[in-house]
Known about the structure:
Its EC number is 2.7.7.65. It comes from Actinomycetospora termitidis. This protein has about 350 residues and is of the alpha+beta class. It has 2 domains: about 5-160, GAF domain (Beta-Lactamase, 2-Layer Sandwich), CATH 3.30.450; about 175-325, Alpha-Beta Plaits (2-Layer Sandwich), CATH 3.30.70. It has 10 helices and 10 strands. The protein has a 6-stranded antiparallel sheet, sandwiched between helices.
Amino acid sequence: MRTRSAQVAVELTPQKAFDAACRMVVDFLAATVPMGVWAVSRVVGRRQTMLVTADTAYGLRPGAEVAWSTSLCRTMSLGTTPRVVPDTALVPDLAAAVGAQAAHAVRVGAYVGTPIVRPDGSLFGTVVGLNPDPLPAEFLRHESLLDLLSSLLSSVLEADGAAVESARALERAVSDAETDALTGLLNRRGWQRWLAREEERFRRFGDPASVVMVDLDGLKTVNDTEGHDAGDRHLRRTATALLGAVRAGDPLARLGGDEFGLVASVGADDAARLADRLQAVLVDAGVPCSVGVAPFRVDGGFAAAVAAADAAMYENKRARQAFRPEHAGVRDVREPVVELTAD
């Protein structure tokens, strides 16, 4: 008769979606190896984002972020601290990270962390468990099980990622009806379908992304004074400048009239710099504009990011109209990185 751990291992096939596999692992660990919280996290830049959680002690929910610099998982991933620590007070190298959490009234008496890696061996994220109080030394016996589960998640991640890329390639091949004839960018229909199609994928993997909204200045004046052919050239010049400034594969759309949208593969830490650079590139191309930016969050999705970026763009436009600087700054609506805090 199979044990429950063997059953979970069999069910974690590479064909399973990564988010479903994460949920299965977290629920299994919460039921069989109780701790204050079990989670699967994604690590991008300076942030560690929780994708799936089972929490009874800390109030940690999917979408919560902690600073990677103070995360207990950072030293684990570097190999300088153990993966299973029944009593964090007995591991001096964890003292700084544990102290940083204690400063926010969060007690971490026991810690578990195992890496989830990509096919090239780089760190994708972690399976992590925290407990307010220390646990008996015999807790170490769970290390082999935890390593097995994180290894299986790495395999599921590879297979699911490959399937996603194949699907994206097929979708790009049939996107002619979603292309703006004037600029060659996505049209509004293509933009909306891309957001709807990618929403679940970005939530599943916790990939970094930011929405950028761009609104041109003076297109109506160009049309009225120089003719619509000049206006068309103005729009094509905008598209060319934007395409030269963004990463290949990042969706760029003309949403209608003088409005453009972009989903950039950058997180909140880099989004404002990207928006400032895009604004400067367009000004240099003779296309002054207003720009707004907002990060995608797993707990808000693309709808919230688009709305926030659009609001930031209009705020930027109002500021530029009021002060008329040549290179107005972009209002950044990022939320700050927060440390893990108790409820």
